[in-house]
């Protein structure tokens, strides 16, 4: 009987697995219709072998709780990151406000704005005089009143003024070292200093004593004039400082019960407005002056036609590079190359097509020279069709590669608007420090000598002064024989013989 039941059970379920107690033994058609169960009992699915297995129900409430916890955790983490970034954002806003204060309304070039800022913020002697005068004024008030607020005023003026002087000296040292000093702290110290000064003057008005009011009024008038002169290059900052000085004193005079004191409350703002108007006029004059000086400096150091540095700037930069490459013992720490270049066939273009065509060729050559050298190299035009290139920290082999690139680039045709493209060549002579010289004059003379040899050997080649035989174009047998005589010291242009022409590069 048991065997029959076991067989029937296997034939009904298709498996010998026992039934789960949680599943009904039979399907009630009232609970399970065509569209699924009407009760919350778990559903079954039919596997490939025909078995019915329960699918685990997802606990929607648990999933909702987990999602809420994740969202809450994310919110807490984002709140913490926002709290970490809040000081950074505040600092950025403060720096933006300071940058707006020191920037002028005319938006001058960055180098001009920097010069104006340096002039406004690094007048240490004027600042010291201001601190001394205000401290003396506060000391007089102490002697006349012996009031606690007067003693506090003296201490606050000395403290804020001392901090301001210290910050100004640090900023001046940073600018002298070539670094961009931080201006936020000096600006804030200046605002604190003038705020303390203005508060003390307001207390003089609040005392109701005409002698104290007169001392404070004269002191404020002198400070307002000094600010308009001291900060003429930063008019927005000067405007804020003038308002900070004049507003409390004027307000105190207007609300004071002392007879006729309101007149000073009207007179000082009028005086301050006149000073501010004159200060903005001075700012325009300063901007024009600095821009004219900047343009004159550019014309004095730049070639007007090509925009390259001229002979004067080349010599200055040459000396600076050599000084920077010298060790403490005066020896050069690394190799340094100088190229002297002269165009071949440029005179024919000038004679055939005019100086306008020659100028166009020079401009194009200057651009090709810039494109052919490294970013650290210094290209200059020293006059006519002659150029000088300074190549710091380079080996002779790398210099020869750059010379080959220059010759190939310059030798390409120039399309300058004529019926047909024109061509010019370039000859290059080089000198290497310290082998060919250790000073500007020695290196330029050595490079000039190598350039003359390159022109003599057939043009369009590169000759290094140390060997005078590195050529980038084929040479005739006679030219090779001339080089051999030069190496023996019997050639008229041996390294020890003087140049047959005055040097053009020095």
Descriptive keywords:
disordered N terminus, about 500 residues, 9 strands, two-stranded antiparallel sheet, 5-stranded mixed β-sheet, alpha+beta
Question: Could you write a compact summary of the structure shown?
Answer:
The chain is of the alpha+beta class. 61% of the residues lie in helices and 9% in strands. The strands form three sheets. Strands 6-7-5-8-9 form a five-stranded mixed beta sheet, sandwiched between helices.
SSE order, one letter for each helix or strand:
HEEEEHHHHHHHHHEHHEEHEHEH
In DSSP terms, counting alpha (H) and pi (I) runs of 4 or more, how many helices?
A: 15
User: Oligomeric state of the chains?
Assistant: single chain
- Uncertain stretches: 1-60, 469-506
How many strand units? 9
Explain this structure to me?
It is a single chain. The chain is of the alpha+beta class and 506 residues long. 61% of the residues lie in helices and 9% in strands. It has 15 helices and 9 strands. It has helices spanning 2-13, 60-102, 110-121, 124-145, 148-176, 184-206, 210-230, 235-255, 262-301, 311-325, 346-353, 355-372, 396-410, 440-456, 477-488, and strands at residues 32-33, 36-37, 44-46, 52-54, 336-344, 378-383, 386-392, 425-433, 462-464. The strands form 3 sheets. Strands 6-7-5-8-9 form a 5-stranded mixed beta sheet, with helices on both faces. A two-stranded antiparallel sheet has the order 1-2. Strands 3-4 form a two-stranded antiparallel ribbon. β6 (378-383) and β7 (386-392) form a beta hairpin. The termini are far apart. The model is unreliable at 1-60 and 469-506 (pLDDT under 50).
């Amino acid at each position: 009987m048991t065997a029959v039941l076991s067989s029937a059970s296997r034939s009904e379920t298709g498996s010998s697995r026992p039934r789960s107690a949680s599943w009904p033994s039979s399907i009630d058609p009232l609970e399970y219709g065509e569209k699924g169960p009407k009760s919350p009992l778990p559903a079954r699915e039919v596997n490939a072998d025909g078995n019915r297995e329960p699918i685990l129900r997802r606990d929607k409430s648990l999933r909702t709780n987990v999602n809420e916890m994740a969202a809450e955790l994310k919110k807490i983490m984002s709140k913490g990151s926002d709290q970490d970034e809040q000081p950074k954002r505040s600092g950025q806003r403060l720096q933006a406000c300071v940058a707006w204060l020191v920037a002028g309304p005319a938006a001058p070039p960055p180098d001009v704005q920097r010069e104006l800022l340096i002039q406004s913020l690094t007048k240490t002697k004027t600042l010291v005089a201001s601190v001394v005068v205000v401290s003396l004024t506060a000391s007089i008030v102490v002697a006349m009143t012996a009031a606690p607020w007067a003693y506090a005023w003296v201490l606050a003026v000395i403290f804020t003024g001392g901090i301001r002087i210290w910050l100004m000296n640090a900023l001046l040292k940073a600018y002298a070292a070539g670094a961009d000093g931080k201006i936020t702290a000096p600006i804030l110290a200046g605002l604190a200093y003038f705020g303390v000064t203005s508060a003390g003057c307001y207390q003089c008005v609040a005392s109701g004593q005409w002698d104290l009011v007169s001392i404070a009024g004269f002191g404020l008038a002198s400070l307002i004039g000094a600010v308009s002169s001291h900060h003429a290059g930063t008019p927005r900052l000067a405007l804020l400082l003038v308002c900070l000085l004049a507003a409390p004193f004027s307000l105190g005079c207007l609300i004071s019960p002392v007879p006729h004191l309101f007149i000073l409350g009207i007179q000082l703002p009028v005086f301050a407005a006149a000073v501010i108007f004159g200060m903005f006029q001075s700012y325009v004059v300063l901007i024009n002056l600095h821009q004219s000086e900047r343009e004159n400096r550019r014309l004095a150091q730049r070639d007007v036609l090509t925009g390259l540095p001229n002979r004067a700037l080349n010599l200055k930069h040459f000396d600076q590079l050599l000084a920077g490459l010298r060790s403490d013992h005066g020896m050069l720490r690394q190799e340094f190359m100088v190229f002297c270049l002269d165009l071949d066939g440029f005179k024919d273009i000038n004679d055939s097509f005019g100086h306008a065509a020659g100028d166009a060729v020079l401009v194009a050559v200057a651009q090709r020279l810039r494109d052919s050298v490294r970013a650290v190299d210094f290209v200059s035009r020293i006059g006519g069709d002659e150029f000088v290139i300074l190549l710091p920290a380079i080996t002779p082999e790398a210099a020869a590669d750059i010379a080959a690139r220059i010759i190939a680039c310059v030798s390409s045709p120039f399309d300058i608007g004529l019926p047909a493209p024109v061509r010019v060549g370039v000859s290059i002579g080089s000198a290497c420090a310290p082998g060919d010289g250790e000073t500007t004059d020695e290196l330029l003379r050595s490079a000039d000598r190598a350039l003359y040899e390159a022109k003599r050997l057939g043009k369009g080649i590169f000759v290094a002064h140390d060997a005078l035989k590195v050529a980038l174009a084929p040479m005739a047998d006679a030219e090779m024989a001339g080089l051999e005589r030069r190496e023996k010291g019997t050639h008229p242009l041996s390294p020890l013989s003087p140049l047959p022409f005055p040097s053009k590069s020095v």
